[in-house]
Design brief:
By secondary structure, this protein is mainly β. The protein has one helix spanning 62-68, and strands spanning 4-10, 15-16, 21-25, 31-36, 42-46, 54-60, 78-84, 91-92, 95-98, 101-104. It catalyses: 5-hydroxyisourate + H2O = 5-hydroxy-2-oxo-4-ureido-2,5-dihydro-1H-imidazole-5-carboxylate + H(+).
Length: 108
């Protein structure tokens, strides 16, 4: 498992959000890794085994998910910034998504 993982759930349907592209960007906005959520809405291999301390971003391409469902939506993408303090610590950043809102938390 990589240092950074995520899980996207579509709360409007109560199901995992498969097929969402997720980009990990580093402190200088450089792209570090790109993944796509699987059938369970997860990206288990996103990025290296370690990261230098700093602020990172996960960018979720949510618009394509809702367009594929023919669903009106407000957020074409969701960008979550988070801070890495310990380079060997695992960071799980889930996204709970609906067409007009989202929430996140630090998972385990």
């Amino acid at each position: 498992m990589s240092l950074i993982t995520t899980h996207v759930l579509d709360t409007s349907t109560g199901t995992p959000a498969a097929g969402i592209q997720v980009t990990l960007r580093g402190p200088e906005q450089a792209e570090i890794a790109v993944g796509t959520t699987d059938a369970d809405g997860r990206v288990a291999d996103l990025g290296p085994d370690s990261l230098a301390p700093g602020i990172y971003e996960l960018v979720f391409a949510t618009g394509a998910h809702f367009q594929a469902r023919g669903c009106d939506h407000f957020f074409p993408q969701v960008t979550l910034a988070f801070q890495v303090e310990a380079s060997a610590e695992h960071y799980h950043v889930p996204l709970l998504l609906s067409p007009f809102g989202y929430t996140t938390y630090r998972g385990s």
